Amino acid sequence: MTMTRTLLLILSLLLFGLFVRLWVGAGSYPDIWRWEAQIDKQNTENDEQAEINRKLQADIVGLTKDTSTIEGHARSELGMVKRGETFYQVILKSDAQSPSPLPPPIPEKPHVE
C-alpha cells in the first residue's frame, strides 16, 4: 500500500466518523429538530399565558375602577343576590349530571321591627 492510499483511507474513515456524528451524536440534525419543536411548543404556551395574563390584568383594572364589575363577579362567581331579588336556577337536562356551578341562595332573615 502506498502512502497516498493509506492517507486516503484514514481521511475517508475520519470523514465517515464526522458524518455519523452529524446524524447520530450530540448536536446532530435530529437533535436540533427536536429542540426546535420544543422551542415552538414553548413559544405557543408562552403566547397563551401572555393572553391569559392580559385578560387578568384587564380584569384587575376593571375591579379597581368600577363597582359594577365587582357586583358582576359577585353575582356570577359567588352566587350573590341583592336584597329583594329572587334567585332562579335553571337546570337543563344536559346539565343534570354535572354539579351546580352556583350554591343555593341563603334565605334572608325575616325583617323584624
UniProtKB/TrEMBL annotation:
- The residues exposed to the Periplasmic compartment are 25-113
Query: For this UniProt entry, what's an example GO CC term?
Result: cell septum
For this UniProt record, give its keywords in alphabetical order, as a comma-separated list. Answer: Cell cycle, Cell division, Cell inner membrane, Cell membrane, Membrane, Transmembrane, Transmembrane helix
- Compartments it resides in: Cell inner membrane
Task: Show the Pfam families listed in the entry.
Answer: DivIC
Where does the record place the region Disordered? Answer: 94-113
Bilayer topology reads:
Single-pass type II membrane protein
Q: Name one GO biological process term.
A: FtsZ-dependent cytokinesis
- Give the highest taxon in the source lineage: Bacteria
UniProt keyword Cell division, yes or no = yes
> What InterPro entries is this protein classified in?
Cell_div_FtsB (IPR023081), FtsL/DivIC (IPR007060)
User: Would the keyword Nucleus turn up in this protein's UniProt record?
Assistant: no
Q: Which residues lie on this side of the membrane: Cytoplasmic?
A: 1-6
Primary site of residence:
membrane
What's the subunit arrangement here? Part of a complex composed of FtsB, FtsL and FtsQ.
Described by its record, this protein's role is as follows:
Essential cell division protein. May link together the upstream cell division proteins, which are predominantly cytoplasmic, with the downstream cell division proteins, which are predominantly periplasmic.
Q: Which family does it belong to?
A: Belongs to the FtsB family.
- Protein name, as recorded: Cell division protein FtsB
Q: Which gene encodes it?
A: ftsB
